[in-house]
Design a protein that fits this description.
The structure holds two protein chains of two kinds. Chain A is of the alpha/beta class. Chain A is built from 18 helices and five strands. The termini of chain B are far apart. Classes of the chains: A alpha/beta, B alpha+beta.
Chain lengths: ~475, ~425
């Protein structure tokens, strides 16, 4: 008999129930390692599951003091701080908050949030943990990398092209394309060809824009202007152009003057630069370097000869752990930054204090994750299998630190799922399983990742580290 | 035929040889030798922390102490006879030429004394080579690193007052097994299930009547320490034998690695920051030949392989050393609110990063510190004898201070203000 027709003697049992099914969950909704990784596709850790209600207070402050303020008022806040008020440190949810803010702003470029007063995009900057971002130029590089990652240059190129096409071909209508499709098509030379639109005449039309008039002639948008076959510009050309810039002054001019004009041409009147883990910069600086950094920042934001300093195009929001203000306050004072954006005046509008979670927040947080993974979303399961008492206890045991709460919830649910008779996670269950979540709370440094010499290779003359 | 590693006597400090030789230099009768041996042992602070005096003086020893001292004394004599450092004729002891030379070497500096002893030991046992080979073989992924994790109940989040019954011990055991499984997967890249091991250990504890087989029965609080130390020994032994395939007893591993640490060919420490337990790694290689100038040949085996000590040249390695020093300093500063951090912790990190022994670290730091004093260094280093406020007395007593520029130092601060590093 052919193997094709043979059947296994064992039959699959449809009746067996999934591990988390009896809790009305498709899988364990909590992250086992609750650190935010923006690049991950797992929504448990990429910041996509987010309960805005928990940080309502902080969000409101940002909305009122930054986003709803007219960008053309020269006195709008250009430098703000989000300061952690608890000393517990990592895992309080700052990164997740920031990523969510980023998505919220970029959804409609803050047009919706500001009643169409402003059109601003946001970028997320995270300095290198190893101290490579400690110089101002390193910081500029990090900002430009984030600009590239956000694809905002592609969006701007598409905007400029669309406006030019509307002028040249008023008969054409692109209303049926989604925004992302438009951006994609308008950055693709083949699309122009297929639709018989001359990309070079579009290009010439763009160059009439008033904002682009006094840009240097080697700015990427002009390349190929005087040649026979003009090149089709993409974000990649901006990237290559920036990498070619060697002098610090050229890079600063590019970011704080030339790019600003380019963004203005594409109808943006501002941008939010969200800098996470800012202390990674001053942590590695000597006191002289701290002061230099503050001076450069002040000049670029407030009073240098840059378009940005005149308009206040970029709005920087620095996220600081508790204790960091003390680390940089001397530099801020001696560079004059303290007068522009004081870091020690907690009652000022530009300082947003990031508060510790409360009991109610813990329940909200857990519920949000549970809801995301309910098999039957219509069945109102509330916090189940967690009891209210258990939720309070989880909050207390984890010192109201968001990361610890999530890890504890993960471990408890994992344990409960392994015990077929366990229906509830209550205070007694937590008591019986103490110690489960205490493990795996690793510090950033570890012998495992320490850079180390390989002696055998060194002796063999194949040194590597 | 080489002797097995396990036949070695139970003492760790190489200084014992010197103490014995010094005693025999003066006396030849065993009783007299023992009297001097006792007081020299006290003088050199052997058997306890080498740097701080903990026990009573030699005159007022308890009976138990005396028996211990006598035991050590006999072991040192036996091993010294084996290496022909001394001879015994009709009950009287005498130094040989080798013994005399060793005393001289000790007076000139511990390092050459230790290396001479190493050669004598290696010619009999080849124990150091066995361990170095084992380290490189089993700790391949991490260039010879062995981890021997130890977690007390407190470190796993259990309060001592909560551990009273068999059930509590079970919970600790479960959490410990899980933590160790994580460590194995993280450091060794292996998946292991330790639940059988945990169960076996619990059975042993019950059989030895340390805990009851009844889940809810309380055990006597006096037994707490004994139970916890059983856990430690059991798992350290498990790591050595089951994971690293060490063929002898745990004590022999400890004796040989501690001796090797004094010679500078293997580093072993329980104080690596951010790690619970002990780590062991080689600071030497056994190869046929090397071109690198950073290695010093100290022994050649019959098969043509030689043992080379890793001793980076001060001139060429100074910059690399400073880089490691500064980055480890910032690493430790991150979790510390003061500018000063523990020098011993810094030492552990730099030694591991560069794979150097404590001697080499001390030499490099000494050179860098002198350059700093004379203003020839791009960073500023300040070293103090004080302790950090958060260090407990017990930590201070166990952890050895670092000798720099002729003084013991405990804390260090680094300022990179003078320029870009």
């Amino acid at each position: 008999m052919s193997n094709l027709l043979k059947k296994p003697t064992q039959l699959q049992n449809y009746e067996s129930i999934g591990t988390y099914e009896r809790f009305n969950l498709s899988e364990n909704p909590f992250p086992s390692e609750p650190t935010v990784n923006k690049e991950s596709t797992d929504k448990r850790i990429n910041g996509n599951i987010y309960e805005m209600q928990i940080r309502e207070h902080e969000y409101e402050q940002i909305l009122t003091n930054f986003i709803k303020q007219p960008q053309n008022n020269p006195n709008h806040i250009r430098l703000g701080y989000i300061i952690d008020s608890s000393y517990i440190g990592r895992g309080n949810g700052k990164s997740a908050f920031l990523l969510n803010l980023l998505h919220t702003i970029n959804r409609e470029y803050s047009l919706d949030l500001s009643d169409e007063q402003n059109k601003c995009f946001a970028i997320y900057v995270s300095p290198e943990p190893g101290g490579r971002t400690k110089t101002f130029i390193g910081f500029i590089d990090a900002i430009f990398d984030s600009i590239l990652k956000s694809q905002i240059i592609s969006v701007c190129l598409a905007t400029l092209r669309l406006e030019a096409i509307n002028k040249l071909h008023p008969e054409l209508n692109f209303g049926h394309f989604s925004e992302s499709e438009l951006v994609q098509h308008l950055n693709d030379p083949a699309w122009f060809e297929n639709n018989s639109i001359s990309s070079s005449s579009v290009q010439s039309e763009i160059l009439n824009d008033v904002h682009l008039q006094d840009l240097p002639s080697d700015f990427p948008i002009f390349s190929g202007r005087n040649t026979f076959y003009p090149t089709f510009m993409t974000q990649k050309d901006f990237e290559n152009y920036f990498r070619e810039l060697k002098k610090p002054k050229e890079k600063i001019d590019f970011i704080f003057t030339h790019l600003v004009k380019f963004f203005l041409a594409a109808n943006f009147n501002g941008a939010y630069v969200l800098v996470d883990d800012f202390e990674r910069i001053p942590d590695f600086q000597s006191s002289r370097q701290k002061k230099d950094f503050a001076l450069e920042l002040r000049s670029c934001l407030f009073d240098g000869y840059y378009t940005n300093a005149k308009l206040g195009f970029y709005n920087l929001i620095l996220v600081l752990h508790a204790g960091v203000p003390r680390l940089i306050s001397d530099a801020w004072a001696s560079s004059g930054m303290e007068n522009r954006a004081p870091i020690n005046q907690l009652n000022y509008k530009h300082i947003i204090s990031f508060e510790k979670l409360t009991k109610e927040h813990v329940a909200l947080l857990l519920k949000k994750y549970l809801t995301e993974y309910r098999i039957d979303p219509n069945k109102s399961d509330g916090l189940s299998p967690f009891t209210e008492g258990a939720v309070h206890q989880i909050g207390e045991l984890s010192e109201f630190n968001a990361a610890k709460i999530l890890r504890m919830a993960y471990e408890l649910l994992e344990k409960a799922a392994g015990i077929p008779t366990q229906k509830l996670i209550d205070e007694n269950f937590i008591l019986d399983n103490r110690g489960l979540w205490e493990t795996g709370d690793e510090p950033e440094h570890n012998i495992d990742i320490a850079k180390t010499t390989d002696l055998l290779s060194k002796a063999m003359g194949q040194e590597k580290e | 035929m080489k002797k097995p590693l396990s036949s070695v006597r139970k003492f760790y400090f190489l200084d014992y040889f010197y103490v014995l030789l010094k005693s025999i230099e003066k006396f030849s009768e065993q009783d007299q030798i023992f009297e001097l041996f006792k007081s020299l042992k006290q003088e050199h602070r052997l058997g306890e922390s080498k740097y701080k005096k903990l026990t009573a003086d030699a005159q007022n020893l308890s009976r138990v102490q005396l028996v211990k001292y006598q035991y050590t004394f006999e072991k040192v004599i036996a091993e010294s006879l084996e290496y022909d450092l001394i001879i015994q004729e009709s009950g009287k002891f005498q130094l040989t030429e080798i013994g005399k030379k060793l005393i001289e070497q000790y007076n000139d500096g511990f390092e050459s004394f230790a290396i001479s002893l190493f050669k004598l030991m290696e010619s009999k046992y080849e124990a150091f080579r066995y361990i170095i080979d084992l380290l490189y073989k089993s700790g391949k992924a991490k260039s010879g690193l062995f981890i021997l994790p130890v977690y007390s109940p407190l470190q796993l989040g259990f309060d001592r007052s909560e551990i009273k019954t068999t059930k509590d011990i079970w919970r600790y055991s479960e959490a410990l097994g899980k933590k160790l499984e994580q460590d194995i997967s993280k450091y060794l890249g292996e998946q292991r299930n330790l639940s059988t091991g945990s169960k076996t250990l619990m059975e042993i504890l019950i059989k030895d009547e340390l805990i009851s087989s009844e889940y809810l029965t309380e055990f006597s609080p006096i037994k707490y320490n004994a139970i916890i130390s059983r856990f430690r020994d059991y798992w350290v032994k498990y790591f050595l034998q089951e994971i690293y395939h060490y063929e002898y007893y745990l004590t022999s591993f400890e004796i040989w690695t501690y001796r090797a640490k004094q010679i500078g060919i293997i580093h072993a420490t329980e104080f690596y920051p951010y790690f619970n337990g002990k780590i062991v790694y080689p600071t030497a290689v056994v190869v046929k030949t090397t071109e690198s100038k950073d290695f010093q040949k100290i022994y050649t085996y019959s098969d043509g392989y030689s043992l080379f000590l890793h001793k980076p040249d001060i001139e060429t390695s100074q910059n690399q050393f400073v880089d490691f020093l500064v980055s480890a300093y910032y690493d430790l500063r991150r979790t510390n609110r003061s500018y000063f951090i523990s020098l011993a912790a810094l030492k552990e990190m730099v030694c591991y990063n560069m794979k150097i022994s404590e001697y080499v670290f001390q030499e490099l730091l000494d050179a860098v510190y002198r350059a700093n004093l004379s203003g020839n260094l791009k960073i500023k280093i300040s070293l103090e004898v004080d302790r950090l406020p958060e260090e407990t007395k017990a930590m201070y007593l166990k952890q050895e201070p670092v000798m720099v520029d002729g003084r013991f130092r405990n804390i260090i601060a680094i300022d990179v203000a003078r320029g870009d590093r």
